[in-house]
Automatic annotation (TrEMBL):
Family recorded in the similarity comment: Belongs to the short-chain dehydrogenases/reductases (SDR) family.
Protein name (Swiss-Prot/TrEMBL): Short-chain dehydrogenase
Keywords in alphabetical order: Oxidoreductase
GO MF annotation list: oxidoreductase activity
Organism: Actinoplanes auranticolor
One Pfam assignment: adh_short
Gene3D superfamilies tied to this protein: NAD(P)-binding Rossmann-like Domain
Length: 290
């Protein structure tokens, strides 16, 4: 599918992790069509430089998804309607690390930070909440009894997969709640396939990491290609809880709708994960049920 982005004049998009890689490519594509883009990033030096290069009405604001205090402060700075919230930023680590709030870092940044951000902004979002996941959700498992890896031996790639599966379950449950509230806002998701973006794959296994790095050099598409599924999920003809990815073996190529499988379709786990996420973040779904 070749995506033709319609005119975005008068619309606002927030892109987390928008200073580099897929986030920057997504922001640049929307800005080129007239959108005001807010790059929500930790490093303001890089953020401001990216905003200057993107041009138009691009701006950079401070957001650390590993800190709920930072998430709340960012949300307080957002006034007026937001057409698109694009939860793009991601973390991957080869060792057990924790966020400022004590969460396992991959779950904390990839899922809980975005969960809190989306719910805090939901009263201002008018069109879509788009969350970037990964094809690595396949084979992943949500351990509700040990989300933070306090009892299990830590497996970096397993923790990453858990966080990316959490992204999809969040999207599914958010859409269910939006529909129940009578909201026209859609929750969608995407994955970039194999993209060379500067994001370092860290599995905790040296040989596998080297193999993945070699594969990235040989097979991966660039940030613009990796952004295509995100853009389709943002402005394309996509249903609520729809999942977009590359068309060529799920690795690269034009963006298309994909069928989810396995644990990503588990509505019971989606509901339970939502409830746990509310307790951990102290942030709740803010729209009244219709």
């Amino acid at each position: 599918m070749t995506l033709n982005i319609p005119d975005q004049t008068g619309r606002t998009a927030i892109v987390t992790g928008g200073s580099s890689g897929i986030g920057r490519a997504t922001a640049a594509a929307l800005a080129a069509k007239g959108a005001r883009v807010i790059l929500a990033v930790r490093d303001q030096t890089r953020g401001r430089a990216a905003a200057a290069e993107i041009g138009g009405r691009a701006e950079s604001r401070s957001l650390d998804l590993g800190s709920l205090a930072s998430v709340r402060e960012f949300a307080r700075t957002v006034d007026g309607p937001v057409d698109y919230l694009i939860n793009n930023a991601g973390a991957m680590t080869a060792t057990l690390r924790h966020t400022a709030d004590g969460f396992e870092s991959q779950l904390g940044v990839n899922h809980l930070g975005h969960f809190a951000l989306a719910n805090l902004l939901l009263d201002r979002i008018t069109r879509r909440v788009v969350t970037v996941s990964s094809a690595n959700y396949r084979g992943a498992h949500i351990d509700l009894a040990d989300l933070q890896w306090q009892r299990r031996p830590y497996r970096p790639f397993g923790a990453y997969g858990q966080s990316k599966l959490a992204n999809l379950l969040f999207t599914r449950e958010l859409q269910r709640r939006l529909t129940g509230a009578g909201s026209a806002v859609l929750a969608t998701a995407a994955h970039p396939g194999w993209a060379a973006t500067g994001f370092t794959m860290a599995t905790g296994r040296r040989l596998l990491d080297r193999t993945l790095a070699l594969g990235t050099r040989l097979l991966a598409q660039g940030p613009d290609g990796g952004a295509r599924p995100t853009l389709l999920a943002t402005v394309g003809d996509v249903p609520g809880a729809g999942f977009c990815g590359p068309s060529r073996f799920g690795v690269r190529g034009p963006a298309v709708l994909e069928e989810l499988s396995g644990a990503a379709l588990d509505d019971d786990t989606a509901r339970k994960l939502w409830e746990v996420s509310e307790r951990l973040t102290g942030v709740r779904f803010s729209l009244a049920t219709a």
